[in-house]
Amino acid sequence: MATLRDIRRRIGAVKSTQKITKAMKMVAAAKLRRAQDAMIAARPYAKTMKQILQHLSSKVDVTTNQFFAEREVKSVALVIVTSDRGLCGSFNANLIKAAVLHINKNYKELNEAGHVKLICIGKKSYDFFSKRNYKIIEKHTGIFSTLNFQQAKTIVGEILEGYNKSDFDKVEIIYNEFKTIAQPRISIEQYLPIIPEENKSQISSRLNQDKSQIDFIYEPSSEKIMEALLPKHLNFQVWRVLLESNAAEQGARMAAMDNATTNASDMIRVLQLSYNKARQASITKELLEIVSGAEALKKAS
Asked: Quick count: other Cβ atoms within 10 Å of Cβ 258?
């Protein structure tokens, strides 16, 4: 049975841990606010860019464009975005589990042949996949502490270099999309080749139904504008993914630290109750010894 000293030490240790988790929750909340602001500011630009490219793809023959042209998939690159640090609940574990399931379900034969290539963003994904014989071609760790647009451009440059050399024929991004603070959503998106969300007939049908939709006239030409926008689109989509993942990480960490703080409070109550019971038992035992000694003295006299 634990002594009073042991219980006091445990209560002190839990209280110290509770102070740490509470402080970490406050830090995560502050970082989450900044991450959310950056993510929300980026979403309209990314959405509008996507809509413009979608509209342009209805006017331009994209089948000859290297970023739209479908290839025979002989090799796949997966960009897996996790965090660099833990203490954020199941944020990393769920994403890594989803990535492994995705590989085994859709690219099992390619993976066994060594044709599934991973680009790991975040220390957690690199640590996991590097120990399990997956083919990692690039890694980026420590970028979320000083996240900036140049890092996204560097990642895109590496992807495009491999794609243009036909080192891989398809690129997908697996990341945590920010939905709510407590529950991010794992998203798997095809990055290359770009898939137009609507083909020409679908766009034409939608335009006929929505008479308020404006049919834009582009200058100098649709082809030149698309050629200029595509690199910006590719860079900004990766930047948006990094912002989404960063916001989701901070939200998950804040929720995890809040749960840890609550659990510490519950544990302190249980330990305090055990301490009171043990102290009461100790006092009762001392009283019984005193009474027993007094009775023995009476009988002796």
From this structure: 18
Helix (H, G, I), strand (E, B) or coil at 42: helix
Known catalytic membership, residue 88: yes
Domain 33-255 belongs to what topology? Pyruvate Kinase; Chain: A, domain 1 (3.40.1380)
d(CA 194, CA 234) in angstroms, rounded, equals 9
- Tens of pLDDT, residue by residue over 245-267, are 999 999 999 999 999 999 999 99
Environment class of residue 186 by beta-carbon count within 10 Å: exposed (0-12), middle (13-18) or buried (19+)? Answer: middle
Same fold, 4-23+258-300 and 33-255: no
Question: Which among 186, 188, 143, 178 is positioned nearest to 252, based on CA atoms?
Answer: 178
Taking CA atoms, 139 is separated from 124, 234, 238, in Å, by 11, 19, 15
> Per-residue pLDDT tens for 124-140?
999 999 999 899 999 99
Counting Cα atoms < 13 Å in the Cβ hemisphere of 272 gives: 9
Strands (DSSP E) contained in the chain are 76-81, 116-121, 135-140, 170-177, 185-192
Q: For tokens 């080192």, name the residue.
A: 167
List of residues 6+ apart from 249 with CB closer than 8 A: 83, 88, 91, 144, 176
| Tokens 């006299």 sit on residue | 301
Per-residue confidence at 299, pLDDT binned at 50, 70, 90? confident
Task: State pLDDT tens for residues 39-64.
Answer: 999 988 888 888 888 878 777 777 77
Choosing from 39, 77, 88, 203, the catalytic residue is: 88
The model's pTM = 0.84
* Residue 110 · residue 186 · CB < 8 Å: no
Where along the chain do its domains lie? Answer: 4-23+258-300, 33-255
In this predicted structure, the answer to whether residue 14 has a pLDDT above a threshold of 90 is yes
CATH 1.10.510.10 given to domain 4-23+258-300:
no
